[in-house]
Design brief:
Growth Hormone, Chain: A, MFS, membrane, transmembrane helix, Sugar_P_transporter, MFS transporter
């Protein structure tokens, strides 16, 4: 009986399941405009460059929100800040279905503004995911846990692209926004009864707390966050100096920027590519996009499992994280082959290979959970996500400009592949040793007591 009493519990997997569910809705709300774009752009009378600018509205706000969102997570705790975010982004998503009521001219500006607000509300989400994974999972499970919540971007397409395609085709594109907004509100309600810090969870056992803490989980993270006094002037600046002066973090930041270029091609322009370049209907494009998404999901989970397996086999954390990232990015270069084939079957094959590789290499959040200073995990994740998501601004606009200039996606796919090479180079050459960064000493942040 004593052995049974000491067996670690599995509450942490309930936390991970909730992160996965919310992240699926998060990414579905980001990609909803891509599914509805072929019809929406006709109704609003906008060209590809204008559509790219509307796509980028999310990215502008998402990037701006990262540092304040990360600070808020550290200051007020993950559960509270994340809940506010889910509720707000769901309301703003539903509101996008009403833009036609304002007339085609005003609708474009209002759509841009609502996409901007969705991006700002989603700002704390993935730093919050990384924060909860750092708090709930030991280092040997962190790669898999991070890969699972990060792979939600693919599962969102698998699950929701066909559904959103059907709603758009059958009822009209506004109803797709209403559907997703309502689903987000339901997720917010579920969040309130599911997410807690390790020490505060009503069902966690002492054995599980001891197990994850012994493995490096930051079990006091949210408890410390809500107990901290308000930040003094200069505290954030001091912490930022530490983060911005670290070479390994810069390698991870640049790598995430490049990896996210592949992500934002997929969730913005990929359905348009299938409709305009490959001549598919919206419903067929939604179904077609599911295959690369499934491969990306499988690659994402495999990358995390592979990384943690290398760690358990005795390889260093540096090797365990870098090998899957670099390997996956090299595999994702297969996307260029789509420029040289004529059949949609081969396009499906090469896109699937490319996003399988991208999934394997998407371990940036695991690395941030490994290296972030203990007291500034939210700020660290926010800075990482801010730099990484600059591509959410640039990618839609650059690809929109390429399309307007050339009328073809060929150069756009080359642009995406070049970013895969940049990601591999960044992790292989720029990033150094993967290890936890020391916090700034409190004496450096706070004035002496008289």
């Amino acid at each position: 009986m004593a052995g049974i009493a000491q067996r670690p519990g599995r509450v942490r997997y309930t936390i991970l399941a909730m992160l996965f569910l919310v992240s699926i809705i998060n990414y579905a709300d980001r990609s909803i405009l891509a599914i509805t774009a072929p019809l929406l752009s006709k109704d609003l009378g906008i060209d590809p460059l204008q559509l790219g600018i509307v796509f980028s509205a999310f990215g502008w706000a998402y990037v701006i929100a990262q540092l304040p969102g990360g600070w808020a997570l550290d200051r007020f705790g993950t559960k509270r800040v994340y809940l506010i975010g889910i509720t707000l982004w769901s309301i703003f998503t539903a509101a996008q279905g009403t833009v036609l009521a304002f007339g085609a001219g005003a609708a474009v500006s209002i759509l841009f503004a609502l996409r901007f607000l969705v991006g700002f509300a989603e700002g704390p989400s993935f730093p919050g995911n990384a924060r909860l994974v750092a708090a709930w999972f030991p280092a040997a499970e962190r790669g898999t846990a991070s890969a699972i919540f990060n792979s939600s971007q693919y599962f969102a397409t698998v699950l929701f692209a066909p559904i959103m395609g059907y709603i758009t085709f059958t009822f009209g594109w506004p109803y797709t926004f209403f559907f997703m907004g309502g689903l987000g509100i339901l997720a917010a309600l579920l969040w309130t009864v599911t997410i807690y810090g390790p020490r505060a969870h009503p069902r966690v056992t002492d054995a599980e707390i001891d197990f994850i803490a012994a493995g490096g989980a930051l079990v006091e993270l949210d408890r410390n966050a809500v107990a901290r006094p308000p930040a003094i002037p200069g505290e954030m600046a001091a912490n930022l100096r530490i983060l911005l002066s670290n070479r390994t973090l810069w390698g991870v930041y640049i790598g995430q920027f490049a990896i996210n270029t592949l992500t934002y091609f997929f969730i913005t322009w990929f359905p348009v590519y299938l409709v305009q370049e490959r001549g598919m209907t919206i419903m067929k494009a939604g179904l077609f996009a599911s295959a690369p998404a499934i491969c990306g999901f499988l690659g994402g989970v495999l990358g995390g499992v592979w990384s943690d397996w290398l760690l358990r086999r005795g390889y260093s954390l540096t090797i365990a994280r870098k090998v899957p990232v670099v390997s996956g990015m090299l595999v994702s270069l297969a996307i260029v082959a789509c420029n040289y084939v004529d059949t949609n079957t081969l396009v499906l094959l090469f896109m699937s290979i490319a996003f399988f590789g991208k999934g394997i290499g998407a371990l940036g959040w695991a690395v941030i959970a490994d290296v972030a200073p203990r007291k500034t995990a939210g700020l660290s994740g926010g800075l990482f996500n801010m730099v990484g998501n600059l591509s959410s601004i640039l990618t839609p606009i650059i690809i929109g400009g390429i399309l307007k200039s050339t009328g073809s996606f060929k150069l756009a796919l080359v642009f995406v592949a070049c970013n895969a090479l940049l990601a591999a180079f960044s992790y292989l050459v720029i990033a150094g040793k993967i290890e936890r960064i020391e916090d700034a000493p409190d004496t450096a942040l706070r004035p002496a007591i008289a």
